[in-house]
Amino acid sequence: MNNSFVMKCLTVNEKGNLSMGGCDIADVAAKYGTPAYIMDEDEIRENCRVYTGAMREYYDGKGLVLYASKALSCKYMYRIMREEGMGVDVVSGGELYTAIKAGFPAERIYFHGNNKTGDEIEMALREGVGTIVVDNIFELETLSRFAGDMGKTADVMFRIKPGIDAHTHSFVQTGQIDSKFGVALETGEAEDIVVKAAAMPNINVVGVHCHIGSQIFELAPFELAAEKMMNFIADMKDRHGIVMDRLNLGGGYGIKYTESDTPIDYDKYICAVAKVVRGISESRGVKLPYIVMEPGRSIVAEAGLTVYTVGTVKEIPGIRTYISVDGGMGDNPRYILYQSEYEAARVHDPNAEKTMVATIAGKCCESGDILIDGARLPEIKAGDLIAVLATGAYNYSMASNYNRIPRPPIVMVSGGEAKLAVKRESYDDLILNDL
Ligand code: LLP
Fold first, then answer.
1. Which atom of ligand 1 is found nearest the CA of 398?
2. Is the minimum distance from the CB of 69 to ligand 1 under 6 angstroms?
């Protein structure tokens, strides 16, 4: 079986069709229609186990891996995470609501966000969310007030800007002060908020958090962030006697969207960071903290593809060929937002000679509605099925109804069975809230 795709869970079956989780992608498309997100459930679970296994190996199991659910939030995903012994990170009342409705244990939820509303804070306290990651002083005061009124004590972490911008090609150490998220280390803002919080009666300071960016391929910025955070924990103990025994190192590990992407091995990253954390714990005499991580993209991206049906193939002589499909920026806004690159495969005989270079465009009334510019594909004609690969993260979760196009379903495949995790929206769903 051929496995030359960016998604390692993808193969070609005896009919010559793309296959995932033992299911023929053409059969799934026939049953559930197109466009459709198709996800390999075993791959998602396996990715969780890579992280939970590394946590056991490098931190003696003293930690928790959170799935950053903004990457793909639906009840089915929270159920998988519960079964895999993961925690989850949520960033809004909507994600929190979905997790709770899916029966996810509230104590394993971390609540993020740079502008949590009063309603969201009240909801988090009422539902018994395990940890609130406080972004700023205003939020801390609001949280303290709500917790006081409700007779509760909130476990909090602080979102720290460690001063690392991992998005510059070679990362620099100052860039991130200009960020809407968190409190800065080097200005003393982080120290201030920790000291203030430690004196508040309804607040229990448990630790600190940082997240230095997303789709990162280098180890060094993660090591440097861990170093800075550990030193901050030690400084707070030395200067103020404040003990913080939990360290959340965020997410951000890059995935393979195209052949030119070279993700780091997650296990290697965790091993390298653990060395830094253990080293500083010893040299500065602070207890090894309970470690929290928050991978999102790397749990789901490579487990998912989107299958489309080709409508028109339009050749503009001497310019380019447009292949228009029945979805587009509504189900995958990442090209129009970030010029993100993807690879595509024809569902039938995907390894046939790639004779075509074309732009895969969506069906929205927007010239920028493109999925892939310069896709290399075998000959494509109207009615063919095309899969855009590695769309499992930040596609469904950022999808919109632009042009009143219903969102596609999510189909989970595993062991030769396909089942719906999210139904396709109907036209009636689109007018549900219209008065
Ligand atoms: N933790 C925090 C606090 C975050 O802000 C994020 C992502 C994560 C964890 C997970 O990062 P990951 O492991 O997925 O890289 N919409 C963009 C990505 C935005 C990421 C925002 N924060 C995209 O489509 O590329």
1. 16
2. no
Does the C-beta of 298 come closer than 6 Å to ligand 1? yes
Q: Give 316-344 pLDDT, tens digit per residue.
A: 999 999 999 999 999 999 999 999 999 99
Which three-class secondary structure state does DSSP give residue 328? coil
Q: Which residues contact 317 (CB under 8 A, 6 or more apart)?
A: none
Residue bearing the CA closest to ligand 1, atom 7: 214
Q: How confident is the model at residue 1 (pLDDT cuts 50, 70, 90)?
A: very low
Domain encompassing residue 279: 112-295
For the chain, the domain total comes to 2
Task: Please tell me the residue having the least CA distance from ligand 1 atom 8.
Answer: 251
Nearest CA to ligand 1 atom 5: 211
CATH number at residue 422: 2.40.37.10
- pTM, whole model, 2 decimals? 0.97
CB 362 within 8 A of CB 271: no
Ligand 1 centroid distance, CA of 248 (Å): 14
Q: Are residues 142 and 243 in the same domain?
A: yes
HSE value, Cβ hemisphere, 13 Å, CA-based, for 218: 17
Distance separating alpha carbons of residues 155 and 198, to the nearest angstrom: 11
Q: Tell me whether the omega of the peptide bond preceding residue 289 falls within 30 degrees of 0, making it cis.
A: no
191-225 confidence digits (pLDDT tens): 999 999 999 999 999 999 999 999 999 999 999 99
Output the domain CATH number for residue 288.
3.20.20.10
211 lines ligand 1 (CB under 6 A): yes
